[in-house]
Model the fold of this input.
Amino acid sequence: MIAVPYLTALTTYFSYGLLFVFGQIRDLFRKIPGCCRSTNLQGYAPICFGNEDFYTRRLYLRIQDCFERPISSAPDAWFDVVERYSNDNNKTLKRTTKITKCLNLGSYNYLGFAASDEYCTPRVIESLKKFSPSNCSARADGGTTTLHNELEKSIANFIRKPAAIVFGMGYVTNSAILPVLIGKGGLIISDSLNHNSIVNGARGSGATIRVFLHNTPSHLEEVLREQIVEGQPRTHRPWKKIIVIVEGIYSMEGELCKLPEIIAISKKYKAYTYLDEAHSIGAVGKTGRGVCELLGVDPADVDILMGTFTKSFGSCGGYIAGSQELIQYLKYTCPAHLYATSISPPAAEQIISAIKVILGEDGSTRGAKKLAQIRENSNFFRSELQKMGFEVLGDHDSPVMPIMLYNPAKIPAFSRGCLEQNVAVVTVAFPATPLLLARARICISASHSKEDLIKGLEVISQVGDLVGIKYFPAEPNKPQLDEKTVKLD
Amino acid sequence: MANYYVKAVPSTDLNKNTEWFTYPGVWTTYILILFFSWLLILSIFGCTPGMAWTIINLSHFVVTYHFFHWMKGTPFADDQGIYNRLTWWEQIDSGKQLTRNRKFLTVVPVVLYLIASHTTDYQHPMLFLNTLAVIVLVVAKFPNMHKVRIFGINGDQ
Done:
């Protein structure tokens, strides 16, 4: 539940209205003369139909320098950001050769594996020499190496499921699996704030899609009851199967999903559950096993567990974990397994080594330390930000913390202000978030030291004061209690 | 102003073009924009309040007709053109008729008409233009006009 100050909501709508009006006026001038771009392609259809690219041209391009900033080093706690300049008001950006070292508050580097690691990197280099950077083949043809089998066993073991299958890309894992699992005549009930990969996969499957209010198990129950009673559209036959799709940590809210209630409801109405743990695997839970461990849900209760290796394991790719029969079926049918190139061997080795570090199988306690560090860092950062008066979303223990900005002008102001002081943050606006709720999303990593976090807090507080995003009253500093309190009897 | 907070609950509407209309504060912003544009017109042209309201009514007619009932599709390419045949009015609330938002948007032109005709003392030619504007806008918002294209005007190629 996000509490928006009413005046801010009004000014945000007004600002977007003004931007829209100016964009339309500019478009009008673009159409009338028609002289600037005379195309000699007669009879060809235009690339963009109607007003499709309005948002990109008139709103996104104005603040283009806040997005897609190139970096020239590994995304560790501090990284090098390449400076860019523009001669035509941000329509085109040119890179320079100058770089600035900035504090990285934007990468999904939850356990610090994104940079060179003392256990993982030597092993990765060894596997690179042994196996080569790419298999140049699909899994079904010549792309399955011993590393892939070891990786699948390792991840199934880690998740505590009977079997797993891995893919080369995280986005593709969702969008290629859902059409295989369910088709026309099935029902997909997905949370309203699910990731674009799930939405794409669901649309591609051909099943009917229904959405329930974000993280509201009571509304899920309502939707399930209504849909089971009504059956398929027009024929009203019973649904062939029902899948409920939720995420572990929602990347734009930092919220944990209410998993125990949702699982209970799905079991009651005999629907399958699909949990996308892209942001939570390896980052939450006592031993890093994700939301199931954190919320006390038995992994056997969730039918399909999906996750990616890009966030906590410092690699690339995604996995699906489930029962033996499910994984066997996927190996026969999933196009991402049959036709897409398999995951790169050094990337697979990085994941295997990262899992070993997390579980402590490398002989040290670094894994446990990293997990404790990220929990401490997240809770410290979040509580400090809230004390300063920022509106921060997300649950306790979650390493993702969005700071609400609201007004469209504050997005580039905050982003550029922080970059000037060498702190790199990621800002997200419409249409990735609802129109009113633009935010700056901070991702905390286990490789951030206390000094890094304090510097980050200082800069954010300064820029926040300048931009005016401290929407909640700041908590006053509690006076220090004396060591010796006089007891009056 | 004391900090008065409202709760923003994410809605189940997947259409980014219309989802913003379900959040708190939109109706107030709409009414305030109309009121402040009236003040602006009064200060720029120095006309009578009645003329200013008539100008507001007519420009409101032109603007809302163009954006609600003429332009089709969405300003993003992400939704792959699912809504390319629907105007904004047909897209809101996922096509459900007679919701609160739709009722509010139908009442606004009528109230504007009443204010404009009252402040101009029902004189011609303002009365005729105002009446034409309100009839066109209200008829376009009838539930029976959902996806109807009269004489193929604004139909698909």
